[in-house]
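Incident log, structure service

09:12 report received: a user says their structure output differs between two submissions of the same chain.
09:20 pulled the input from the user's history:
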Amino acid sequence: MPSYAIDGVTPVVHPSSYVHPTAVLIGDVIVGPGCYIGPCASLRADFGRIVLQEGVNVQDTCVIHGFPDSETLVETNGHIGHGAVLHGCVIRHDALVGMNAVVMDEAEVGAYSIVAACAFVRAGLKLPEKSLIAGLPAKVMRELTENEIRWKLQGTQTYQDLTLRCQASLVEVQPLTEEEANRPRLQVQGPKTLVASKRS
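09:34 re-ran on a clean worker, output below:
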């Protein structure tokens, strides 16, 4: 993976995590155990620190950054959807930030909450636990059901399992020139791993 030190500070990646070779880590990035960092994600900690706790996934083309002296924190089982932008904010444990959503400086997304796709969470906004958050600007729409919270955790577990699948079998190859006879389909059985919340 492209990984760069700056001012003598080098990224840290736990050996049980998977970082795609096209993701970029710069400076004061700390990736905890069992994390998944997807293709073309940019974790650029050349001003403030970026911390991903255990079991976090940061999907394709996400951007994480922050102002000088800030800390962008994604707690245990955080789930950051494709194309999301986090800037100097806190995502509490078991929360989900949807595709192309933006969470700005000093905002805080409560534990077990879901930020809807394309939502804009303004700077400094403190959002409660177990909430559905949506809109431009984002606001609390309602409390999440237990089924919705379980659904989110299952999705996160699927990405934790993807970490193991990538470590075991993801390799760079040349594409085939035509489809082979009896082409196999992926047999994804569902999550085999679970990083339990430290607070549940």
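09:41 both user submissions now match this output. Likely a transient worker issue. Closing.
09:42 reviewer note: Residues 146-169 form the longest helix (24 residues). Confidence is low (pLDDT under 50) at residues 193-200.
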